Amino acid sequence: MNKEQLPYVGFLGFDVFGTVVDWRSGIARASEGFLSKHGLDVDPYDFADEWRALYEPSMQAVRAGERPWVPLTVLNRENLETVLSRHGADFAGITNTELVDLNRGWERLDPWPDAVEGMRRLKKRFPIGPLSNGDIAGMLNLGRFAALPWDVITGAEITKSYKPVLGTYLGSARAVGLEPAQVAMVAAHNQDMQAAQAAGLRSIFILRPHEHGPQQATDLTATGKYDIVAESLIEAADALGCK
Fold first, then answer.
1. Which UniProt keywords apply (predicted)?
2. By three-state DSSP, how is residue 4 classified?
3. Model pTM?
């Protein structure tokens, strides 16, 4: 692969949670003090996993038309309260300010070690930005926290749909003034890759075998035929001739 790879692509749209940032460690860190303060006997990493496990089901209710579109921040807050209830949290002793701050843990996640350098190198050739289920405010705040060099924010909020609905990819391409084949999806999840391909986008798969911790059993390999498969964003930049 060289600088001629993906010659007609004019935008790289990034999945963010898991591909660019380490959500599991960040949410465990954000939760630890809260759980201790309120006497909740749950491991912070288990708490992060439980919270994240509600991510897809809550979005599916929107995809299925069972409820109107709402930003991911709203779904995350509802899911947070569900997980806390499971563990017997006393909501009478928890302030709304505490819940808001804990929910904002999704905006304070560290990038994977290769992410910022890789994205900066890719940005030399391509405009870049999230094509994420995260809402605009969340992506803005996360970008500033993690020094992510977005050019623009696309994804769920501008399309009022959640991936892997094809309209999320197509609407994001329209928003940056490009045809689907002129956009490449960058993601660590095969489902995301395959949906993007179905929408006509190009595909860059990044291996993140520790996104879900040491027992991860999904997305350990590329299960489709993608334009680029790389072990890091730095490796993807190398493949695309971005020095």
1. Hydrolase
2. coil
3. 0.96
